[in-house]
Design a protein that fits this description.
Elements (H helix, E strand, L loop, with lengths): L2 H16 L8 H11 L1 H8 L11 E5 L9 E6 L2 E6 L6 H8 L3 E3 L1 E6 L2 E6 L7 E3 H23 L4 E7 L1 H14 L11 E7 L7 H12 L4 E5 L17 H11 L5 H12 L1 H22 L3 E2 L15 E3 L18 H6 L25 H12 L1 H6 L10
Parallel strand pairs: 3-8, 8-9, 9-10, 10-12
Antiparallel strand pairs: 1-2, 2-3, 4-7, 5-6, 5-11
Helix pairs in contact: 2-12, 4-5, 4-10, 5-6
């Protein structure tokens, strides 16, 4: 073999390796994905997402709206594609998707606008998933499969699924759906990876266990959360082990005993049946609204389980800082008040009551996830970032 041939093969091998999705959490990938997730935010606020999109990614496709105001984008960088699912919008149907939280079997048949949709999110017969997010997969699956096959025709088989909040939940559930498809429907050459941000839970313990064992352990699915963000704690989770044993032992011997959590666990257990029926009733109302405003939908009967479980491979960020914004900026022009209120070395007043407080939604905003990821893992880029927060989020 000549040196020229050897060099050519080495370059070709390096190119092929660089095009693959490697298992394991990649901070640079996570940074790019949360930036892409912010595309919808910037388009809504400024009608332009150019300044938030990471370099090298070409936006190939933006879908129309489907079902309960769901939408997605397709990006390509080299030999890797990204599917970005939009999070909740201000429209009523979008929030109906979130509160349609009764669970249906993870394998079954639903009917969407007269068409049967046979789905499988998990093989365990007792696994169950969120009705609203499963229905979104039902609305989206045909076109998304078409888009994936188009990518395959270009030789692109490495695909990242991402989304923030509701979009992250759909990304996780779509990942489960795609991985359980029969080989005749989608090429087995496709390799998927998932980065979901601030996502609510999508299924019960058996669904979570199966998802974790297949995609969490192999390092191809990650959920990035801010512990101060409430949304990843929804819809409902309580302790499914021995209530008395766990809480009494924690009370007697542990340092993490929470009286509030004990009441929550016990209260949910006491009213488990009533809550399940209540969620079923809400589901029926949601179904009627969707059938009236979008199209006829028929889902399998809900299961009794209402206990959602978090997916593993969670990457936790720090609580997001809220900017120092005075409740009354006129204090800066009042010399007498300036003498009363002391300031620290950083120039800010020591009395925190002078500043505005954040709402709970601050900890959930996608742009704040982006900023915190830069701050934690890319400090040089964070220092150069001119826009540390969006005024529209205040």
């Amino acid at each position: 073999m000549t040196k020229t041939c050897f060099l050519f093969l080495a370059i070709l091998f390096a190119f092929q390796c660089s095009a693959k999705l490697e298992p394991g959490f990649d901070k640079a990938e996570a940074k790019d994905m949360i930036a892409i997730c912010n595309s919808f935010t910037f388009l809504d606020l400024y009608n332009d997402d150019a300044r938030i999109l990471p370099s090298g990614y070409e936006k190939r496709y933006t879908s129309g709206t489907f079902g309960m105001d769901s939408k997605y984008q397709v990006y390509v960088k080299d030999e890797v594609a990204v599917v970005n699912f939009r999070g909740s919008t201000e429209k009523q149907l979008s929030w109906i998707q979130n509160i349609y939280a009764s669970m249906i079997p993870a394998t079954g048949m639903m009917n969407v606008d007269g068409n049967d949709f046979e789905y499988c999110f998990a093989k365990d017969p007792l696994a169950a998933v969120h009705s609203g997010y499963a229905l979104s997969v039902g609305f989206l699956h045909n076109e998304l499969l078409y888009q994936i096959k188009n990518l395959n025709r270009e030789g692109i088989y490495n695909i990242i699924l991402t989304g923030h909040s509701q979009g992250g939940a759909i990304a996780n559930l779509f990942r489960a759906y795609l991985e359980n498809l029969p080989g005749r429907l989608l090429s087995k050459r496709n390799k998927f990876k998932t980065y979901a941000f601030a996502t609510p839970m999508t299924g019960n313990k058996l669904f979570a266990n199966e998802y974790n064992s297949r995609f969490g352990i192999d390092g191809t699915s990650f959920n990035i959360v801010n512990p101060a963000d409430l949304i990843p704690t929804f819809p409902l989770n309580y302790n499914d082990t021995s209530f008395v044993k766990d809480n009494v032992n924690s009370f007697l011997f542990g340092n993490d005993f929470s009286f509030k959590k004990m009441l929550m666990d016990g209260g949910v257990r006491m009213f488990d049946g009533k809550l399940s029926r209540l969620m079923g009733s809400v589901g029926k109302s949601a179904n009627k609204k969707i059938s009236k405003d979008v199209s006829d939908v028929k889902l399998p009967p809900p299961v009794e389980d209402i206990n959602y479980f978090k997916l593993e491979s969670r990457i936790e960020l720090s609580e997001f800082d809220y900017p120092k914004i005075l409740k009354d900026s006129s204090i800066l022009q009042n010399d007498s008040l300036l003498q009363i209120y002391e300031r620290g070395e950083d120039g800010y007043f020591l009395d925190h009551d002078l500043y505005k407080s954040s709402s709970w939604t601050w900890q959930h905003k996608p742009y704040n996830y982006y900023v915190e990821i830069l701050k934690n893992w890319f400090p040089a880029e964070y220092e150069l970032l001119k826009l540390k927060y969006l005024r529209e989020n205040i």
